[in-house]
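[User] I wish I could look at a protein chain and see how it folds. I have put the entry right below:
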Amino acid sequence: MEISDLQFSADGVMVNLPTSKTDQEGAGRKVGLPFGANSDTCPVRVLRCWLTAAQISGGLIFRAVSQHGRV
């Protein structure tokens, strides 16, 4: 999943899933994630914190980490 697949808004984040194994036509789909009631466990807030902490502004959202801790 890449940064370009996310659209943040006042309601949460819209995630574009370009393909999935149940999507036989490859049409993709968009899934909305609303803000959670608890700020400590809110998926939208946690995702924003991750992107800020990891200094990710483009490309892949989740990066591979080697057994030696290298990103």
In short: The chain has a mean pLDDT of 89. The longest helix spans residues 43-53.
